[in-house]
Structures are given as C-alpha cells and as structure tokens.
Amino acid sequence: MSIDPSQLAALSAIVRHGSFDAAAAHLNVTPSAISQRIKALEERMGTALVNRGQPCTPTAAGTKLARHAEDIALLESHVLADIAPGSAKAAPRVRLAVNADSLATWFVPGLMGAGDMLFDLVIDDQDTSTDWLLRGAVSAAVTGAAQAVSGCNCHPLGALRYIATASPAFMSTWFGQGVNAATLARAPVLTFNAKDALQHRWITQITGEKLTPPAHQLPSTHAFIDAARAGLGWGLNPLPLVQQQLDHGTLCPLLPDKPLDVDLFWQTSRLMSDALAPLSRGIRAAAAKHLVKNSHATVTKEI
Predict the structure, then answer these.
(1) Are the C-beta atoms of residues 201 and 211 closer than 8 Å to each other?
(2) What would you report as the CA-atom Rg of the chain, rounded to the nearest whole angstrom?
(3) For labeling, which of 59, 71, 263, 268 is most exposed (least CB within 10 Å)?
(4) By C-alpha distance, which of 40, 53, 51 is closest to 9?
C-alpha cells in the first residue's frame, strides 16, 4: 500500500501544530485541502487518525503514521545531504523520548552535534520510555532498559548518579536518630510522579525493606530540588544539579557514601540508524562526558 506524500505531510503538520488551520498555513494550502487530505488518508487506512478538538491530537494510528512521515523526511534529508548538498527543503523533525533528569543535566549538549534537525521531545521516566518505542511513537529514546526493543539498536550511555538529599532542618527533625528503616518509614519523601520508583529503590537498597513513607508528588526536576531545600521532604536528586547546594550546606546528603547510579541506554530505530548517526554520536559523546560508567558498559544487544 502506497501513501500519498501530501496526505502524510498534512497529518504531520496537524500533529505538530495542533489544528487544521495552522497546518494549512504551514503547508501554504487551504484548510479545506488539509481536511480533504486527512479524510482521504483516514478512508485509505480504515481508521481515524486525528481527534478533532482544541488542539487536534493524533489517535494511536495517527501517532505511528505521523512518526513515519517524519522518518521519511529525515531519510530523504540524509540522502540529499550526500548526493545533492544544499538541496534539502527544510530541517527534518525527530521525535525522541527522554527522562526529565537527563534533559536537565546532560542531554541538551548531545543535541548540538546532530546537525540540521528539529527536535520534538517526549518526557517520560527512563523505566517506561521503551513504551514509546514499542508504540512506534518515537524514533529514539533514553531508556533504563539494557534489552533492546524489537527493531532497535541499544547502546550503553553510562549512569546518572543520584544522591538522597534534604535540608539541614529536615535532617534534624526527621533523621536525628539516624537514617534507618524506622526513620525512613516516617519521613515525608518527594516523588516525581506515580512512575517514579527511585526513592523506593534507594530505600530498599539501604534497608532491605519495602517501605511506604508519606509522599509528595512534584513533577519538575528543579521544583524537586527547591522542595528539598525548603524542607518539604527528602528525595533523590541528580548529583550534577545539587553539587553546589551540597558544597554550600543548603542541602545535606542522607548518606554521603550511598548514591544510587541509574544506568541509561540509547535506543534507536534500526531502520533509522544511519540517518540518526550524527545525533547518536552527539548523545553518546555528551553521556561520556557527564555520566559515570555503568554496570552494563558492554551491552549492545540487538534483536
């Protein structure tokens, strides 16, 4: 089954810009033309591709097809760069999944060496970002899984080091008798969202027990640090982000010699590996500079 490129371009523009009118303006056609193209594409696919609303959003099938359109544009740009430099029409767009802490610490410098690309970043926990690859919604992802997703290549990046931190006043109030199972069970803890298992992983690593302390949810990397400094609770923060606060004493480590190293991996669609090679080199170089060596440094499993 072949797909009309103009229909794919219309779908991609709607997903990117959120409305038929904005997609029409981007493609220099009328909104009616966009509507006709989407209707024809949906009829050809036999399913709805766009949820009409404010803004318009893709269905599951629409998400896959829109990413397919972006992959085609990236592959075309990659080929043209080799055989006809300077002839590319526009910078291709790449959709990636990355965890918030990586984005806040080391990931952005890795994007700088990718050349002429536009990035659409999806923020998700490293332990669940593989779901985006499985759904065909992204072309690459930073994951916590050493096992390659089917159809993907997997390369180790290193480990992001976390340190359990709290304010001096919080330490005095809640951990005056030491950091142990009893005090950790009572002290309020900070969590990023319902998917965030880092604090509980660290508790189990330290105590050997599965505890359920009272918890705050703050889905922001920097608010997480601010909340710890304010004495709202304790939490695991990336060491690069809190080193200055630790040096100045505005934050204290719960146990200085007990960090949590979270292994990270770069997974890319195998079909897109050549086109994504400049990006992959940039990501791996940034990771080598900012992350610590992980325990799966030799894992490059491909299935």
Answers:
(1) no
(2) 23
(3) 59
(4) 40
Note the pLDDT tens digit of each residue in 158-187. 999 999 999 999 999 999 999 999 999 999
**DSSP state, 7?**
H
Which tokens in the block code for residue 151? Answer: 């159809």
Q: Could you give the CA distance from residue 56 to residue 15 in angstroms, rounded to a whole number?
A: 7
Residue 97 CA: distances (Å) to CA of 31, 134, 290? 31, 12, 19
Which domains occur in the chain, in start order? 5-61 (1.10.10.10), 69-150+277-285 (3.40.190.290), 161-261 (3.40.190.10)
**What is the C-alpha end-to-end distance of the chain, expressed in Å?**
26
Residues linked to residue 216 through DSSP beta bridges, in sequence order: 190
**What tokens were used for 148?**
């390659």
Q: At what angle do helices 5-17 and 31-45 cross, to 10 degrees?
A: 110
Tell me the pLDDT tens digit for each residue of 185-217: 999 999 998 889 999 999 999 999 999 999 999
> Of 85, 168, 126, which Cα lies nearest the Cα of 267?
126
Token output for 189: 């803890």
Token reading at 88:
């590319």
